[in-house]
What we know:
Elements: H1 2-7, H2 13-36, H3 42-52, E1 59-67, H4 72-82, E2 87-90, H5 92-97, H6 101-110, E3 114-117, H7 124-129, H8 133-151, E4 159-160, H9 172-181, E5 184-185, E6 190-191, H10 200-213, E7 219-225, H11 228-243, E8 247-248
Helix pairs in contact: 8-9, 10-11
Amino acid sequence: MRNLLFNFKVNKSSHIVRFLFSAVMLLSSLLVQTVCIEAATVDDRIEKFIYNEPKPEKVVYLTFDDGPSKYTIEILDLLEKLDVPAIFFVIGENLDLLSNAEDSLKQIIHRGHYIGLHSMTHDMNKLYDSSNAPQNFVNEMLEVRDKIKEMTDGFESHLCRPPYGGKTHFKSGHYKALEEAGIECIDWNVDSLDWAKPSADQIFNQVVADLKRNEYPKEVVLLFHEKKLTLDALPRVIEYYRDLGYVFMPYYEGQEFECLN
Length: 261
């Protein structure tokens, strides 16, 4: 094609320029569309929801506990398909046991989600009942944070989910130790109980019932776990919330959860 262009007569050069310009513009348009297909990063989501648009009136923070697991990548694929951000609270022991743990963590970040801390052991006695429980709790959160940072080449989390819920298990020493360590903890206000339910229908019904019990709050922190039935229930749950006017929001460092203050 290049040889043909050079063989054109001089009086047709203006047509050539216009043709090339049009071709370049078309190619640029196609490249832009291709880039837009990629999954949004955490920064992309924050830019959209926090800086470019006002915070919606009704929001949901979707959270998953006890990962990573053999279902993590499937959950990520589903969330990408439905364009939903989430927070994944991971356990340190699972990072040691899961063969693709490093890839799972990197995929969580790459696809626009946040990784939170969920202790090393999930051991209630060690974290809440022993004589040095507050320091054990913080030490385990710092240990799992270091693992995440190493496996993701630098991602450092400051958000934790207390196993079994901090509101019912924390003592005064826990709050002091967490403040000194610069770690924020969140519980939840809608629980799917997906770890105990025998079917996706029952998980969905539990989410509906718990939302109603809480009188449809403007801000929801929704608790799931990385289970097979959770994958089956999620599309219906997400559609249900969206039909009610809720928007699924990303988490960013330093953000305050109004519903749990």
